[in-house]
Amino acid sequence: MTAPAERASADNGRPDVPDAALVAARAADSKLGQDTVVLSMGDLLGVTDAFVITSGSNRRQVRTIVEEVERQVKQSEGRSPRATEGLRDLTWVLMDYGDFLVHVFQDEARLYYDLERLWGNAPRRSVNGIVPDVAAED
Questions:
Q1: Which residue in 115, 97, 96 sits closest to 105, CA to CA?
Q2: How far is Cα 26 from Cα 129, in angstroms, rounded to an integer?
Q3: Helix-, strand-, coil-residue percentages of the chain, each rounded to 5
Q4: pLDDT for 38-96, tens place per residue?
Q5: Does domain 15-127 have CATH number 3.30.460.10?
Q6: CA trace torsion 118, 123, 126, 129 (10° rounding)
Q7: Exposed (0-12), middle (13-18) or buried (19+): which is 46, by Cβ within 10 Å?
Q8: What is the CA radius of gyration of the chain?
């Protein structure tokens, strides 16, 4: 878990996530990442504070999103991923920043693995705010 100064506030019902995760989510959106969401994982997983999940329609877009996330997080927060996996086939790229993970999928892989459903009880944030609980609407 990160220090409170490095985390987005949980005020106004917003889930508590690292500020850098929001930077990563905005970076993904700036390169047309689709349905970008941030899941607050701290209370559920205990290993990381947040997941940033987004997707691109093809390998080129996935690579562009990954490069932009890395560039903006480095520029804004002075951080690089500890590890990055999946750059060879670009169907699911995982960027490990320690306190948050960035998942960049091709559309088909995102539908198949469906992390949002797997972690359906995680509080969600869009890039610009809170996302309604999908499970509560069913």
A1: 115
A2: 11
A3: 40, 25, 35
A4: 999 987 877 889 999 999 999 999 999 999 999 999 999 999 999 999 999 999 999 99
A5: yes
A6: 170
A7: exposed
A8: 14
